[in-house]
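A further point concerns the way the authors explain their paired sequence and structure data. An entry of this sort, consisting of the sequence and the corresponding backbone structure tokens, reads as follows:
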Amino acid sequence: MGLVQLEGGASLAPYHGNLMIGVPLSIGSLDLSSNMLLAPVANYCDLAFRMIARSCGGVGVAYTDLLSPHGLLRGTAQSLDLARTNDADSPIGMQLYGCQTELLCEAALWAIDHGADTIDINMGCPVDKITKKDGGSKLLCDPEGTTRMAAALVETVSNASGGRIPVTAKVRLGWDDERLVAPSLARSLEQVGIAMVTVHGRTTEQRFRGQVRHTGIAEVVSAVDRIPVIGNGDVTTPEKAIEMLERTGCAGVMIGRGSFSAPWLLRDCWALQTTGGVPAEPTQEEKIALIRRYFELMLEFRTQRYAMAHVQRRISWFSKRLGPCKPLKEALRLAETPGDVHRALDEFLAGGLRFMPGRDPAEHRNGSALAGASA
């Protein structure tokens, strides 16, 4: 199998039989087909995108967007859309956020009734509108209260599901470098029945700046006795997934932003773990087919307005893997109907919408290469 080569020429030890690499994950009684998890990312992990990522392979479990207990229990259209799932979207984790124990428990019961295979407590979102209401990563500032809340949620879910549905938590290392509570909190959460902890290797104060801290995740792995710890942050290639597993000892990897331009990334990460190789990148035709299918699923599951807005937003991510395509992005930005979207994709497949009018293709390629070298 050889060594896994990392950026800069470094290599990791042989990976078959080492740690938890290539071992499918189990979360309580829930057995997964891989150790790769598709993250809950606000505004990006809707049902349509989860279906696209699942179609590529390698997804052990995928998560909904952050779900508001208030919204679920009131039945607001937005919350119901965010929680939407179907039989093919399995196994599915529903992530709840907030700080009110009774409300979270009621929302967990709603999630059980609406198809959740696992329920996750958001203890890691750094966004102000969440933390200012004492949810998300603000929960890290009160470990004892957060543990009590988690214990109540575990008991509620266990009683309602007969122990079938595990409750998990997603955390950051701490609020800031003065309050790195993740190891002690994870240990406390395990003691009250939390079945898995995912750790984003940054503090709230860092947001998404700086490099993910593998040592911080490794400390959480060392702090727990039995439950799996999942590493999260900056995994954008299969090699970086291996690096995360090797350097932290975690049992699996959760990927969010890295999948936005490459929904097949989880497939590639799992393949490298289990076969020592990475499948060929999808062809341009296959990539356009994924974009088209994503758009069609959004039209099916949501509204035309939603689908148009999101395909225009997501093309900036997808285009990172399409080569020169600025005119395609512009055509989609100006599209007014689904027909306009399909015509633009058709024209791109036919060889058009690749270079701006009046610009030499060779100049464009050279400029792209220089831009990539300086990024």
Notes: Residues 1-18, 363-375 have pLDDT under 50 and may be disordered.
